Amino acid sequence: MTDNAVKFFVGNIIHCPAKLQTELIENGYVAVLKNQIIAVGDASTLPSQLEQLEANYKIQTIYLRKSQILIPGLIDTHIHAPQYPNAGLGYDKTLLDWLDCYTFKLERQYKDLKFAKKVFDAIVKKTLQHGTTTACYFASLFTDASLVLVDSVIEYGQRALVGKVNMTLSPFSDYVETEEESFQNTLAFVNNVLSRKVDLVQPIITPRFALSCNLEHMSELGTIAKNNNLFVQTHISENVDEVAMVYETYGMSYAEVYDKSKLLTEKTILAHGIYLSDDELQLIAARKCSISHCPGSNTCLKSGLCDVRNILNYNIKMGLGTDVSGGPSPSICAAMRSALTTSVHLSFSEENYKPLTYTDVFYLATLGGAEALGLDNKIGNFRTGKEFDALIVDVDVDDTEVDYLLPCNPMEILQKFVYCGDDRNIVSVFVGGKLVKEGNTKFT
């Protein structure tokens, strides 16, 4: 495939044109030039599109099989790259004990840059394998290690926001910064990433959570974000004991702490949000922040059940997060299933509660994630002018969890993928128009 060719992806196409809406373009096409979508339509308009373009461009056509669909790339709005070796470990603990017994001990090892490279290459490759075209990463406390993650993301062609973690309060004397070190190291990290001028990768300001940074420090980090027009990511209201400790420490709610620190803006992504009060949700909505729903982690660390329907009712932007290694899987497909299970469990105890559907979580994993990360002007669905981040999904692949024994319509294929699929059903992954994973797809 050459860069000056227009690639036509022809077959069944599914995306979300707007919030909680799903559109099937049956027997349609998406035309891509370099990294950009230049046309979308149904088969009836394909001949005229080809005629218009053939005079100036080489045409390459990718025909999808009946068992395949083209969908937007999946978006992970909250993942801890350094924690990947611990995936599947420590779930006999709850959040705060898990941090002390497992997480901080592992994260202290990232002074070793060879170890950092090994882990970060693995998590970037693994998430791409699972169809994560965009990831919002917590990196390391250590600046050099955080830059190693940036290197891995660039090397393998993923779209990402990467944040150097900030933590001036810690149970470990060798895993903590002074406020001055944190400020200077964060500035150095931000400047290094911005100087690379890589369109797919941007820095994000990352105070770990309200118990690891004081108000003044968080305000300083907010200033860096504002001065450089950057996003901010942190945690909020994940665990009952954590929420109580925040109130004990500051004498105000979790959301109020961040608001007082000037961290609640339209460029802020808050992970979890299980125990937010109505007042806090109103504040978050007023500040136009986003929430990353991390259902796998919320279950494994016994944190609680997040009511996504309630949060969406406040018109708050929402995406899905794997929260590796709080969550055991780097797969957003697994996160979609966890979100569905969580929502069904809530319906057992709440009268007239409408659980999420497979199309709802598909929205959260694609356009919802793009909106949460402020990237919906670039990615998240198949609109003309957007960049081409996409997956070809096939439910008729040998040796997967899906036995394709009866023909399915395109929406049923999507449903099967959400409930039964895994990385083996993702046969091609494109980021910014570039093929970064190829399986069983034939190019003509």
TrEMBL record:
Pfam families named in the record: Amidohydro_1
UniProt cofactor(s): Zn(2+)
Record text on cofactor binding: Binds 1 zinc ion per subunit.
Residue intervals of the Amidohydrolase-related domain: 69-436
SUPFAM superfamilies, A to Z: Composite domain of metallo-dependent hydrolases, Metallo-dependent hydrolases
Biological process (GO), any one: guanine catabolic process
Cellular component terms per the entry's GO annotation: cytosol
Enzyme Commission number(s): 3.5.4.3
Reactions this protein catalyses: guanine + H2O + H(+) = xanthine + NH4(+)
Biochemical pathway: Purine metabolism; guanine degradation; xanthine from guanine: step 1/1
Alphabetized UniProt keyword annotations: Hydrolase, Metal-binding, Zinc
InterPro entries found in the cross-reference section: Amidohydro-rel, Guanine_deaminase, Metal-dep_hydrolase_composite, Metal_Hydrolase, Metallo-dep_hydrolases
Record-level Gene Ontology MF annotations: guanine deaminase activity; zinc ion binding
Purpose of the protein: Catalyzes the hydrolytic deamination of guanine, producing xanthine and ammonia.
NCBIfam families: guan_deamin
Family according to the record: Belongs to the metallo-dependent hydrolases superfamily. ATZ/TRZ family.
Name the UniProt record assigns to this protein: Guanine deaminase
Record organism: Dendroctonus ponderosae
